[in-house]
Write a structure and sequence with these properties.
Layout (H helix, E strand, L loop, with lengths): L8 H10 L2 E6 L5 H14 L4 E7 L4 H4 L8 E3 L12 E5 L11 H5 L5 E5 L10 E4 L6 H12 L5 H14 L10 H11 L5 H9 L4 H12 L2 E3 L4 E6 L1 H7 L21 E7 L5 E7 L12 H7 L3 E2 L3 E6 L3 H15 L2
Helix pairs in contact: 1-5, 2-5, 2-6, 5-6, 6-7, 11-12
Bound molecules: manganese (II) ion.
The site of manganese (II) ion (MN) has 6 residues, from loops.
Length: 336
């Protein structure tokens, strides 16, 4: 189905104006943008409405910290849904049924009261009345625009979560989606007194010491192939056991070799507890617009996995050497 706006921000503002009790929610396992959108909107409207923040699935600690002292309810399954009967439900940063499973049935029963704000290019119809702008760098940017339509002045308590969402969804303003509109939005938020350095520390600098031990082992394992275009790293069960490491300690580690000039694809192989191998693949965007790049998804799909063109993954049979061979064969098969 086509996923696009069915309403304007002015339409959504009118629905909000007419409501008294409002639930704000977002996708499962909320990221900075999901949490920032919910918290920004809840705080901005709480002086005039009864606002409820509902977060679905597990909430990573650095993200939960963004709530400060604003109350929220965690909903891991239908049994956690409070008995509140809102007259409006605002779904933020998603429009996909697959991302809101704990609340899906409850939302479907209240479809006439659900409005959506999203910046993803695809989705379904949990929010029949929705505003979708896939050119926006973050959902918080759209919330910021909505607050403008509502005539609500930004203060630092509202601006902080909005900035957190914009910063995290743009890789702290380094990714291609950090465009002029994103910097302009950031400028307005910072002007309220948002402490961006504190936010960066609280969200991004939260690793355990075990991460460095695992990073050291992964980097020491790098093998270059295809003339330096492909880096392959391995982490075995022994690496995790000997460092007291967890899978959450290696988040984002697959990207590390891409700092090397000429590196186009990075592969991280992780030996699973059951003996299988999880391969994560990351590739660089083209050096020039429309130029060549390594299609990580095509490589993963060749082995039964999937993902995005620059970030993909696949589960393979062990041992880890066989996993490495399978990846090498897939790279050769999809590269002509
Ligand atoms: Mn987002």
């Amino acid at each position: 189905m086509t996923y696009a706006s069915t309403a304007t921000l002015e339409d959504l503002a009118a629905r909000i104006g007419a409501a008294e009790t409002i639930v704000c929610t977002s996708h499962e396992k909320p990221d900075g943008d999901a949490m920032g959108s919910v918290m920004g909107l809840v705080r901005a409207l709480s002086s005039s409405k009864r606002m409820h923040a509902w977060l679905l699935g597990s909430v990573p600690p650095p993200i939960a910290g963004l709530a400060r002292d604003t109350e929220w309810v965690q909903i891991a399954g239908p049994e956690d849904i409070p008995s509140v009967e809102p007259d409006l439900i605002i779904l933020l940063d998603t429009g996909a049924w697959s991302q809101i499973k704990p609340l899906a049935g409850w939302l479907a029963d209240r479809a006439d009261r659900v409005i959506g704000i999203d910046h993803h290019a695809s989705g379904d119809d949990p929010a029949p009345v929705r505003y979708v702008d896939a050119t926006a760098a973050s959902c918080t940017m759209l919330v910021q625009s909505l607050l403008g339509v509502l005539g609500i002045e930004l203060d630092v308590a509202v601006a902080e979560p909005l900035f957190a969402g914009l910063a995290t969804d743009t890789g702290w303003f380094r990714q291609a989606n950090a465009d002029a509109a994103a910097f302009e939005a950031a400028s307005h938020l910072l002007a309220t007194g948002v402490d961006k350095d504190r936010l960066f520390r609280e969200i991004e600098e939260t690793a355990r010491p075990a991460r460095l031990s695992l990073v050291a082992r992964a980097l020491a394992s790098v093998q270059w192939s295809r003339g330096g275009a492909v880096a392959t790293m391995r982490l075995t069960r022994a690496d995790f056991d000997q460092t007291d490491g967890r899978r959450s300690d290696v988040t984002g580690l697959v990207n590390a070799p891409l700092v090397v000039s000429g590196a186009e694809l990075s592969v991280l192989l992780i030996e699973e507890r059951d003996g299988g191998v999880k391969a994560s693949l990351r590739s660089k965007p083209p050096a020039t617009p429309g130029g060549p790049f390594v299609d990580a998804r095509a490589i993963a799909q060749h082995l039964g996995g999937g993902g995005h063109v620059h970030a993909a993954g696949v589960s393979l049979e062990g041992p880890i050497d066989c996993g490495a061979d399978a990846i090498a064969e897939a790279i050769a098969a999809v590269s002509v």
